[in-house]
Amino acid sequence: MEPQPLEEVVRNVDMRLTRVEQILPTLATKEDLRVAIAEAIAPLATKVELQEAIAPLATKVELQEVRSELREEMRHEGERTRRHFDVVAERLEGHIRLIAEGQVLLQERFEDLRTDLKADIAQLDRRVMRLEAAR
Length: 135
Hints:
Layout (H helix, E strand, L loop, with lengths): L2 H21 L6 H9 L8 H8 L5 H75 L1
């Protein structure tokens, strides 16, 4: 190697070492970690303690059974809701049919009144014309 690049390499290594020396005091040692674990408010659980803690939890098979039961219950509830809706829809159709029939009757009645009024107006018109002709 040439002398100048070798000096640069040494400088770079020196700079890196300085940075590492600045970081080292902030890092925890093995002993620091042991003390921190020992002084922890709640010590870490052991494997046996963890197994005891998860023992009462549901298994995958149990969860699948519950899921299956819930699906069945939802299907029944859906059928019940559908039947109820059908009954409500039938009642509404009946009410709408009654309203439509009433509307038809009113229309017929209106037409009868209109015809009667036309006849009355025509009769009155003839009487007025006779009276005017008599003058």
